[in-house]
Specification:
Length: 121
């Protein structure tokens, strides 16, 4: 174990893009759910529900942990099944009871039509 760093190196362009994607409902199958739907930053990074609800009101099995400082977590998810944030973040868009997209190409095809977003990438 290492002590937590006081700060992590960040790139302002990537932070802005990440903030936008975090709030982007196009990551979900029916364009209704964003990461922020369950990890609402104005309420501590959680939705305050017993279990989170995803596309079509489908219910998960556990509640949403906060995303605040998640980059500093030793492991991700309640059961620690993801070792890193990178490994974790790929899950929700394709999780059938969360954002329920069928594939990354489905998501990318939608995002590609947004020229302001492609420019930022
Ligand atoms: C439908 C609700 C829902 C959506 C949408 C959602 N999450 Fe989550 N998130 C959860 C739940 C529930 C967990 C806990 C799952 C578990 O532990 O099995 C979780 C766990 C996490 C964690 C792990 C935190 C920790 O302390 O272990 C991170 C980070 C996270 N989500 C980020 C995201 C990001 C980024 C997105 C968008 C790409 C997203 N989530 C979309 C409900 C959601």
């Amino acid at each position: 174990m290492q002590p937590l760093p006081d700060s992590l190196p960040t790139d302002t362009g990537k932070v802005a893009l990440g903030r936008q994607l975090f709030n982007d409902v196009r990551l979900s199958a029916d364009n209704t759910i964003s990461c922020a739907s369950c990890h609402t930053l104005s309420t501590g990074g959680v939705d305050g529900k017993k279990v989170s609800s995803g596309v079509g009101g489908q219910l998960g099995l556990v509640n949403a942990p906060t995303v605040f400082n998640a980059a500093l977590n030793d492991k991700q998810f309640w059961d620690g099944r993801a070792a890193t944030l990178q490994e974790q973040a790929g899950g929700p868009p394709l999780n059938p009871v969360e954002m329920a997209s069928r594939s990354w190409s489905e998501i990318i095809d939608k995002l590609k039509q947004d020229s302001s977003l492609t420019q930022q990438f």
